[in-house]
Design a protein that fits this description.
Blueprint: H1 3-21, E1 29-33, H2 39-47, E2 52-55, H3 58-67, E3 73-76, H4 85-91, E4 94-98, H5 101-113, E5 118-123, H6 140-148, E6 153-159, H7 172-186, E7 196-198, H8 205-210, E8 215-218, H9 220-223
Helix pairs in contact: 4-5
Length: 236
Amino acid sequence: MSAIEEKLEVVKKRIAAAKARSPYRQDVTLVAVTKFHPLEDMEEVLRLGVKEVGENRVQELEDKRSRLKMPVVWNLQGHLQKNKVKKAVAAADLIQSVDSVEIMEEIDKRAGQAGKVQDVLLEFNISGETSKYGLPPESLDEAAAKAGMLPHIRVKGLMCMAPMVEDVEMTRPVFRRAHEMWEVLKTYFPKGQVSVLSMGMTRDFETAIEEGATMVRVGTAIFGERNYANGKGETK
């Protein structure tokens, strides 16, 4: 058994245990965060049964997608610049990081040009940290109403990131608030459309699941630490 296989099995067991503790008894999708890891690592987790992967940069997603010969659902989860939206729409199955009305409108425009309805998550900065991107929580009603008017995007749910704190219990109020907002978001769209609550990463995914996450984004716990010698971004 390889190191990745061993770590993936541990993550799966931790997810199962957290689901058992959650009062919601929800299904949980694992997104393996493959950013800055080689294509071979991605191929290994896909062979081991992972169905979805996450990338933070459009360029890396494009490159890996062009070389991968296996079926997978591509998640783009990093902050998206307006000038990269056209490429993001062409490459991503789910754009998780819709963090402004401007980006929402640009995705709708580019998806319309491509003859596509783009699945998205609305990202909210629930913790209020200035270092994080995201729509302000108080804009939920406005953002949902705006998204409902755009014909070439389909809101599938909500995404958030908790603060990086030593005591993981400190993340619980953020996840709890996200779940409350997700329930409100559902009321703006047809029944069943909003099904994804993406929250929780390597350091806090168990707490996120306990608070209702239906999707977790885990990289380091599966693939090990990344090499940031070349300026490679934030850990997931």
